[in-house]
Amino acid sequence: STYCKTIIEHATAVQRSILAVNLDPAAEHFDYEVMADIRELIHLDDAMEDEELRFGPNGGLVFCMEYLVENSEWLKEQLGEDSDDYILFDCPGQIELYTHMNVMRRLVNMLHSMDFQVCAVFLLDSQFMIDASKFFSGVMTALATMVNLEIPHINVLSKVDLLDRQSLKQLSR
Asked: Which Pfam families does its entry note (predicted)?
């Protein structure tokens, strides 16, 4: 995603070593290099095209994430032993994975068992923050994610540059 590219560019500028891992089986392309890509293990199209499974995009994504957790050795091999680097895990954006399913929590537990210290970065579209009902929806979604994952959590407003002046003024209140 664009956000991962931006984080990687910043880390490089401040001379921090950062690696990226794609955990989105539906990703199409990257503007940055990845050290591991879930699509080498399973791709969303694999789950959707399987005649026995017959998953749609959402069910297929859940299946792929479950498959990753069940095949944790693949991820362990990809990550190797290098502990001096920061690793950025680019995860799928389907909110159900974080709010009321346990697959991402299981992934976090797997990373903890591999001695990773994990922190979540939750991106919230700033356009949702200017309307009261959407604001509460966004805040509650972020809170549900925090409670479900039980790890340090950073909430980031994204796309602030796309807001018009009136919306920026509302946001700053």
From this structure: ATP_bind_1 (PF03029)
Closest of 66, 21, 61 to residue 45, by C-alpha: 61
In terms of Cα–Cα distance, which of 103, 113, 109, 93 is closest to 150?
109
- What is the number of residues in the chain? 173
Tokens of 59: 């069910």
Per-residue pLDDT of the chain (173 residues; tens, 9 = 90+): 778 888 888 888 999 888 999 999 999 888 889 999 999 999 999 989 988 888 999 999 999 999 999 999 999 999 987 666 789 999 998 999 998 899 999 999 999 999 999 999 998 888 888 888 888 898 899 999 999 999 999 999 888 888 888 888 887 77
Nearest to 91 by CA among 107, 79, 74: 107
- All structural domains of the chain, each given as residue ranges with its CATH number in brackets, are 1-118 (3.40.50.300), 120-173 (no CATH)
